[in-house]
Amino acid sequence: MDLSMITGLMTAMVAAGTPYLLASLGEIVTEKGGILNLGVEGMMLVGAVAGYITAVKSNSLLLAILVGVLAGGLMAAIHAFLCITLKANQVVSGLALTIFGTGLSAFLGKDVVGVVTDTLFHNAPIPGLRSIPVVGEALFNQTPLVYVAILMVPVLWFVLSKTSLGMKIRSAGENPAATDAAGVNVFAVQYGCTIFGGMMAGLAGVFLTLAYNNTWMENISAGQGWIAVALVIFARWNPWKALLGSYLFGLVAILGLRLQAVGISIPTQLFNMLPYLLTLAVMIFGTGKVGGKRSDGAPASLSVPYDREAR
Amino acid sequence: MPEATVELRGITKGFPGVMANENVDFTAYRGEIHALLGENGAGKSTLMNILAGLYRPDSGDILIEGKKQDFHRPADAISAGIGMIHQHFKLVDNFTVAENVALGHEKTGFLVNKKKMAQDIAAVATANALELDMNAYVWQLSVGEQQRVEILKMLYRNARILVLDEPTAVLTPQESTRLFDTLREMARNGCTIIIITHKLAEVCDVADRVTVMRRGKLSGAAQGEEINYQNLTSMMMNENIKIDANVPRGTPGEDVLCVKDLRVLGVKGTVAVDEISFSLRAGEILGVAGVAGNGQRELTEAICGLRPAEQGTLTFNGRDMTRESVRRRIDEGLAFVPEDRLGTGLVGNMNMADNLLLRTYWSKEAGKGMNIDYSKVNAKVDEAIAEYDIAVGNKKAPVRLMSGGNLQKVVLARELSLEPKAIVAAYPVRGLDIGAMEMIYNLLVSERDRGAGVLMLSEDLDALLKYSDRIMVLYRGRVMGIMDKAEARIGRIGMMMMGTTPEEVAKIEAVSHV
Fold it and tell me: What is the pTM of this model?
């Protein structure tokens, strides 16, 4: 294996890992605020189809991004309304939205299956940075959404750990009653976090159709939304670890095909299993002491609906 | 006449099935300590939660410093200068003291400079003599310290009206004294202090003015000279329940339960019970005093088999029970009245019959083989309702809908029906009204007279002194001392609850000629 092959592998890895990264960053924010969103897969699909249809009809990439992101956000707003306002079971609501999103996207997209568009993302190499040996091409000769995803990592890390907004988000996920009593509008924080998470899932969907596969087909995400949810646990709700995890899972995703290309035949089904196996391994071996208690580091009130007048 | 800072007019608030507040008026003035007195369930906390913006009243007006207010959320109340300190502290465990205080405060800008934030808050703490480590995590703090964090939080927000819900429930007598000194100082500086309490002694000690509630309604008010025991009792209760001060002593027999060098770990993996040894005799009530969180919970759970003993032995009726299953312990005659009735004691979503079955479903009493004979069980339910005077609307309804007192009676009906040889009763009257309290204490006394050994945990020292034959004091998982009823005094127990050894107590008493 020579250097160009390694560079090629890494380039593919970063591209394949980007939808994971976008979606899991969104889910980290949602869960840090205390809401569990299992509807990521559905939101990704709806974002993907909405973005693609808009690109086909309007030929405007910017509009396509906007519509895809808003579609994901809208789906998340349903989740937020059900879970925060109506205090429904978050697992049930999330699962329902995934199933709903899968069906809805197939229905909306039936006319654009196989339709080709030129309104696609193209590589936008960053001069200078791309000449860094080995990683330069992989990280800095990609489509713009890859850069957005990478930039979001330090931004979200900073917001979550260094700002008062981050403090409000974290405390809403840890102890909403205490947060409420401290005068923070818990409902607004949780709505915001959930909708943000959905918008990121929508953006991940837009990446899938307009920057990665360059087409729409039914169920295009093929479980990637679920892997993003698992990645959040893998990353222990830390954006930096989500970056590493996303690229690792991206590598796993492309490795099967790449190995086949060089004549090593391992059943692809085995590779498809790997992200989930990794997640299981993390859940088994990765729990550690947090706050003196044995825990996986999840926000203490994750998925517990907050009812102010509960007695 | 001082300025009225809080005026509540005609407040009404209903919850499904209960009228928590019915047309309640309440006024508090600047610079006073105002006690809101009433039994549990009288509606005190609801009223104050309305003042704090946590609940919305169904009708009625709130006036703060003369201005009519409409609170939609706690933030509104906070900006009007109201700070509420809840009975269960509203603190984020995984945040530091400074983060908890700064959370949600507008002084905290978008960018958080943790160092400067901690310094600012420490300055406020020092100015008010509140000793705290700004960088400690809340889960590391004692209950008294957590309360100080809550007070600091309110001071940092410039609260002028401070509401404390049962502030002394979790404190030692000494810590309580310290708290009241702080509160008096704050009142002198122009704050309005409102304390919600059901402890008469506390009210007589510190309150300048008292408002009394009963069953969701206003039942009286008093100030200055009028604040005395008789006056307040008659306002609190509709009938004069006689409180006979003298409970005859039991006649202790042989040891039923021997605990030797017992060591138990707590939830955090730290040593919660540290080499405790004592024995409980048949026919006595052994009272256990201690500030909450000093190993009581772990001790009771270890005795009942819910928590493993790391070291030491538990002997029951002369037999080693250290490693036996919960069921074997029950079969040997051990009864457990746990701290949280609905969590450990009962299954909330099951009805009374099924809950009564929980300790006997395997026996012949419940039916033949796998079959449960509900005609038998239902007869037991009726028996229990009559014998323990349980108020139950629908026998088939889930027990979680019952009130605290009735829940506790169901637990006792189940536990006592087996004629246990030893009873572990953890805070058996917590949260109950005086009528239910009396009944439960009397039940335990009659069990003692029947010959059972009773280990009774309580945070009410007066009740411990009244009903126990001996009193054991726990501090940091150790036994500080065991006293006979004759030598037990509140002051002595209080000092031992703070970690003073009996020898030191004796020295202090010798010096101060108590």
Answer: 0.73
